[in-house]
Structures are given as C-alpha cells and as structure tokens.
Amino acid sequence: MQRLDLKQLLSQKLSPQQIQFIKLLQIPTAELETRIKEEMEVNPALEEDEADEPEEMERDEDDSDDSDDPDASLDNDENTLDEDFDDHGADQEMADEMPEPELQPKDEGPADSETAPDNTDLDLSDYLNDDEIAGYKMQGDGPGEEEERDTPLADTSGSLMDSLLDQLHFADLDERQEAIGQQLIGSIDGDGYIRRDLSAIANDLAFSQNLEVTVPEIEAVLRVVQGFDPPGIGARDLPECLLLQLERRPQDENTVNAERILTETFEEFSKKHYPRIQQKLDLEDDELKEAINVILKLNPKPGGSGPSGLGKTQYLMPDFILTNDNGVFNLTLNARNAPELRVSPAYTEMFRTYDKAAKKDAKMKEAVTFVKQKLDSAKWFIDAIRQRQNTLLRTMNAIVELQHDFFAEGDEGKLRPMILKDIAQRIGMDISTVSRVANSKSIQTEFGIYPLKYFFSEGIATDSGEDASSREVKSILKELIGKESKERPLSDDKLEKMLNARGYNIARRTVAKYREQLNIPVARLRKEL
Fold this sequence. Notes:
Elements: H1 16-25, H2 29-42, E1 46-48, H3 52-68, H4 72-96, H5 125-128, H6 144-150, H7 160-170, H8 175-186, H9 198-209, H10 215-225, H11 238-247, H12 253-264, H13 266-270, H14 274-281, H15 285-296, E2 320-325, E3 328-333, E4 341-343, H16 345-356, H17 362-402, H18 404-409, H19 420-427, H20 431-438, E5 442-445, E6 448-451, E7 459-461, E8 467-469, H21 470-482, H22 492-501, H23 508-517
Parallel strand pairs: 2-5
Antiparallel strand pairs: 1-4, 2-3, 5-6, 7-8
C-alpha cells in the first residue's frame, strides 16, 4: 500500500563560498601561489593584474588615435580622467562591501538556452561597472626588498643519485658491472643505505634488464659503490656505515679501537654499557673515551649530508612578519607569492557586446550565462582571499596581544598559557577557524621564525596559584638536563622533585612526556664518559 508522508527537516549546509574560504584559510603562503594559478587555469575570467601592460597599451592606442584625429587627444584625456575616477570609486565600493552573487545551477547550459530569461533578468550593471573594480591587491604586504633579501633561496644543487652516477661512469667497470652499479645506486634510500637483499636486487636485474648475475658479483660492485663520496654510502646497516667511514680515517690507535667497538661490542655501545665494553676489549678509560669520540663524529645518515643529499633543503616561508618599532608592533602578511588579481576586462567587454546585441539572440544569451558564471566564480575567489587575509590578521593580532611579553623580549619563559578557545573568544570566531589558521602557518620575528602552534600551550598549576605555560616548564626542564652531570644524569624522579621545589606542581609521568617531546633520551642513554 502506497502512502504519502510529509516531513519537515531543518539542516545546515555550507555554501560554496564558505567551502572555498575554508580551503584557502588552511593553506600556507608557500602554497597560495599554486592554488591561485590553478584557479586562473580553470576560470578564464580571473587573471593577474599586471598594471604596467595596460598603461603601455593605452599609451600606444592614444598615439595611434592622435595621428588620425588631432582633436582626439582632448577626448582621450577626458575619458581617461573619468575612467580613473570610476576605478577609484568602484575599488572603494568593493572594499566596503562585496555583493554575494546568485548561485547558478550546474546543469544550466546550452540545453536551457531556449528558456533563458530576457535581458532584464541579467543585471548587467553589476558587471559593466566592474571593468577595473575587481582589481585586487594583497592587504598587509610587507616591504618587498626586505622579503627578497631575507627569504632564503631554494637549493638548486644536484641530487645524491646524480653524483653517484657520475662517479660510477668514471669507475673502471665493464658494461655488465656498470648495469649492476646503476641498479645498486637506484636501491639507495634517503638515508644512504641499501636495505634490500642482494638476492632481490639480482632478481630485479633478471626481470628488468634480462641480466643474470650472482650475489658475489653484486657484492664486488657494491664495494666499488661504497668507495664513492660521501663516505658510508651504500651500507646495509649502521655498523657497516660507520666502519666504511672509519676505513678512510688514518689508522691510528683510536680508529682501531673504534673499529673493535663497532665489530665486537656494538650492542653494548648502542646501550652505552661502557663498563662491559672495557671488560671485553680490555681498554683504559682514556682509550675508551677517545674511541667513543671518534665514533660520535661519524655520520649515521650519509644520504642526507651535504648539498647533494637526497633530501632537498627546505626553507620555511613565514606567513606573517612582525617588527618592533620602539615598542610598537607592526604586523604584516607575507604576500610575495600571491599575485594581484582582477576580473578579466575581456569578459566585461563581452557583456557590453551582449547589451548592444539583439535582445532575442539565443546563442548570445548562452554565452552571457557562461560568462556570468565565470565572473561570479572569480568574484567569489577574490572575496575568499580577502576574507582569508582579514581572518589571518585578526587571529595573529590576538596572539600578539596575548603573548606581548614574549614578542617584546623573545624569552620563552614569558609565554603565557594559551589555547585555541582563548583566541576564538577574543576574535569572535569558531575554534575550528583558529585551528585552521594555526595549522602550518608561521611568523617571522626579530628572534627567529616560529610556527603558530608554538604559542599554544597548556597551563601547569604553580604554588603561587597562577598557571605557567608548559613551554616555560619545558624550557626549565631542558635547562636542568643541560646542567646535569653527564657521568650521573638526572632521572625523571629527580627532575620531578627539582621542578616541584621550584613551585611547579607536576607529576613524574608529565616530566617523562615533556622530555620525550624535547627528544631527550632517558638518563641511562644520556650518560657520557
């Protein structure tokens, strides 16, 4: 039996503009340029505002007109003056309020051309007056020369694989051995190790190059590759990597003792059981200490060393720039990677053409519908970037106000306890919005570049009744460990008592958590001779 039911539902959905704003908000400045280029490729109505080229074109047109009509210069000057006033007025109107365009159905297209509305349904005035009003300039641009000078350049040196292949070509190898060498070099990971079984590499050569080789043949070529620079490359484990580097050192007593430690007592060495090493190898305290110092100077990850390492050097591009002018903070957005945007004048001209064309031209109406959608999309994108700038600046200003003492002195102990909720309440936005701003963003200060997450920390109760930032506690913890006796490092229990004596109510498990977050090993592994 069929039945007709009537239900009333209340739901909340994000508009396309809100979704676009959220996606733009969470990307850092370094990725904003790529995102803008992608949008410009998809939407031809959005283009980069190159201010110099239009002026040159206008001058060329003025010169050509002057040659034809001697009275044209007066008209051109007057028209240019009017356009300048129109542009400034339109820019001010855009800055004050950005009208939200009406959403168009996605399936609206040529098939609906017959039922397209009349000219009066398309408000052409919104677009005809926007010839230059959509010109967009990033707000809060910092000084360009300083950004160009202070921002590091990307590493353009060759990769480690290229360097190894060049060394392979200069080695005295036949064609068969060189093919094996290329396969071995291709098997080196980012740390500079060959972690694959040599038998698996032999199978790869058989399947990919139809080359039947034996494991001893691969081992012979591997010894050649392990002689390349950087030292230690092509090792199969950490002891072999360190031993390869020791082979290139002068074979004095310290180097020999270091090799014995790695070959005979590597497990004890990794756990810092020095008395056992002395007992096994019959070494004096001074001999053991000198040998350990030799090992500690070796590179455990040769693949990432030097300018030709596999891991490219990555530079952090700050999203904010904070300067201190005699106690007055000036906060700007780093906008060197965001080009100025505007709505394409060519699309506005298409609207002018439509306004003058026949009123019942179906094809023209189809074109105008398409252009209108692209113009709406371009305006939404520009508006979303403007909202992104305002939100970033509001959030960062609130952080600077709350952490004023830190930004003034750069002392980590001056950081106040601060969570996302504190900033959200201060700027009147949702916690998720503040989280998106703090994620993958950073600020350049006089004391260095800090990620925004650095300024958010929990509060630790103190004897005075005030909460201290966990950053402050970590700073004191790091200081205590740095001043400890390396022969008898402080345990977590002792560190807990020392912090409690300073007035911080903290448990031992919290001390262990903070120590691990600082990448500090346990007391046994911090012990030195």
